[in-house]
Design a protein that fits this description.
Layout (H helix, E strand, L loop, with lengths): L8 H5 L3 H13 L3 H14 L9 H20 L11 H11 L13 H20 L20 H4 L6 H5 L5 H11 L5 H5 L6 E2 L2 E5 L5 E5 L2 H8 L15 H14 L10 H15 L2 H8 L4 H5 L10 H4 L3
Antiparallel strand pairs: 1-2, 2-3
């Protein structure tokens, strides 16, 4: 560990160029994981493309990746400031061969998990270059093979489960499910909804990266929200964190006889995207509704039936 621990990433970013370089070189030379996490987070919040709008979820995910990569590098004899030409590829390869540690899971780490770990390691090296500690880019020639199975296949949208689970939810939990499954909100967005965000038939959503969007709400969602009293003085409608919301919703799924179908809140958001696409046949409109910046992202949220173009090709 370094002698003087910088507790705040902003304080680290405010160091002089020389002091920052010394701190980063020392941390990398001694494999000081805690300090390297701070260097990465200081870079992400002050010098990356999103800067201070970088989400806490991204920072936490990248911190987890750094805490995985640095001990591996130490164990493998990799010099962080002067890594070998093939060290990035070696790390990717061992991640792909690593057994999954999830409860009830078998096989190797999911491709998405591998990609997240590598993204965090790449962020670390961008941070070290930002700090003036090294020019190394060990992951420049270390591609992460994509998962050959589309996400919409691995984690498809809920279908009839939504209507069957709702009667087993108390009103606030039902409102949360409807916000995800009918209004298309991310669970983090839904948990952050306040009474003042609801204006008539529309909801102001505070999305990723500080983006705002206005989402139209159906009657069912509006009715569920209007009847909810705020749980905090600031008007918040929910006081659960992600783990607490997950626990409550998984219990509701089990009570409805769909315990095996519970796949997290993301499948509820895909339910919304899939239903809207079937009604509009327009990925652009669905993407705007879900708050996507790319239609390519939206395509991963829509389950298209195998015979979707049967009528169109009938008379070819």
């Amino acid at each position: 560990m370094t002698l003087v621990q910088v507790q705040d990433t902003l304080a680290l970013a405010n160091l002089t160029d020389q002091a920052l370089r010394v701190r980063a070189v020392e941390a990398a030379s001694t494999y000081d994981t805690d300090m390297l996490v701070l260097v990465m987070q200081a870079y992400m919040t002050t010098a990356s493309r999103k800067g201070a709008r970088t989400s806490r979820k991204t920072l936490e995910a990248y911190a987890l990746a750094v805490r995985d990569f640095v001990p591996w590098a130490h164990e493998q004899g990799v010099q962080l400031l002067r890594p070998g030409r093939r060290d990035g590829g070696r790390y990717v390869a061992q991640l792909q061969r690593r057994p999954s540690q999830g409860r009830g899971k078998s096989g190797h780490l999911a491709a998405a998990t591998v990609a997240q770990y590598v993204a965090g390691a790449r962020a670390l090296y961008r941070a070290l270059r930002w700090a003036g500690a090294t020019e190394a880019q060990p992951f420049e020639d270390a591609p992460v093979p994509p998962d050959p199975t589309p996400g919409i296949i691995k984690n498809p949208p809920y279908l009839r489960e939504v209507d069957e689970v709702l009667p087993h939810c108390e009103p606030r939990l039902a409102a949360l499910l409807l916000l995800c499954a009918h209004a298309g909100l991310r669970v983090s967005e839904a948990l952050g909804v306040k009474a003042t965000d609801l204006q008539g038939t529309r909801l102001t959503v505070h999305g990723k990266g500080g983006k705002l969007r206005r989402v139209p709400l159906g009657k069912r969602v509006r009715t569920a929200l209007v009847g909810l009293p705020p749980v905090r003085p600031d008007g918040s409608l929910f006081d659960w964190n992600y783990a607490q919301a997950t626990y409550r919703m998984s219990r509701a799924f089990r009570a409805a006889g769909h315990g095996d179908a519970w796949r997290g809140f993301h499948a509820a958001r895909k339910h919304s995207g899939t239903r809207l696409y079937r009604a509009t046949r327009d990925f652009t409109r669905v993407g705007l509704f879900l708050g996507h910046s790319s239609v390519d992202t939206t395509r991963r949220y829509v389950a298209v039936e195998d015979d979707d173009v049967q009528n169109e090709v009938e008379d070819f």
